[in-house]
Amino acid sequence: MYNRIRKQLNGILRSTNGPRGACSGDEHVPAFEAHRHIRLLTFNIQVGINTSSYRHYFTRSWQHFLPHRNRIQNLDRIATLLSNYDVVALQECDGGSLRSGYINQVQYLAEASGIPYWYQQLNRNLGQLAQHSNGLLSRYRPLDVKEHRLPGLIPGRGAIIARYGAEEDPLVLVMMHLSLSKAAQQRQLAYIQALISEYQHVVLMGDLNNHAEELLSNTPLKHSNLVPLPETAHSFPSWRPERALDHILVSPSLEIRRSEVVSYPVSDHLPIAMDIKLPKGYLETF
User: Fold this and answer.
1) pLDDT digit string (tens) for 105-148?
2) Burial of 199 (0-12, 13-18, 19+ CB in 10 A)
3) Which of 32, 165, 251, 267 is within CB 3.0–4.6 Å of 140 for a Cys-Cys bond?
4) Total number of domains in the chain
């Protein structure tokens, strides 16, 4: 599998237009089924680097630019976790460059975890040095998947929006990685809020680089009526979680059956998981 993926990515890298995002295609993906709940996960995987101390930001910084033999092993550990979920949002993935051994990490994790659908959004293209990407993994066939470039002074942030169910009343999942700057976050969330305002059943998930109280009180998301995780859902840093930067925010129409910060320290962020129940009567539409 490694050689096959590398061959595919080498072909992309040699193209005259440079690398682009990629998708598995959905012909082989099961249709959205009338399940009563969906298991969600969001995870900033830090391009497969295992960080367990602040000093590793210095001692292992070279792994952001060069390949490392333990990266695949760490990806396999991540894939073991992902195999337990239905829809996964991934941040800080590499789309196939020198540092990842020319492996599209979104595709690798999808295949290793047995999840049939994957979508990679390439946000910052540094050629063979790095392919900064977001990713979506899904056990269900979406109605459609669209990627959006988020506004900001420094380009390179993006969002993936996947819709499921019925065209007239879809379940809308937004996966994103926001900037660190509060000014940029305001612009980015204004953009997102405009996209989701017409929908009733919405899930926002990803590394939002801010606390939920701030996001839902002092940004354009205050108009969204989204429900956050508890304030104690700290996900960063993974070895001593003190800040709630990773989130799954849902519409009131979606009942939260279970939510947790998953104790799985294989990145500098911990993953966030949520089990949501679809509204009563909604399932009969499919």
Assistant:
1) 999 999 999 999 999 999 999 989 999 999 999 999 999 999 99
2) middle
3) 32
4) 1
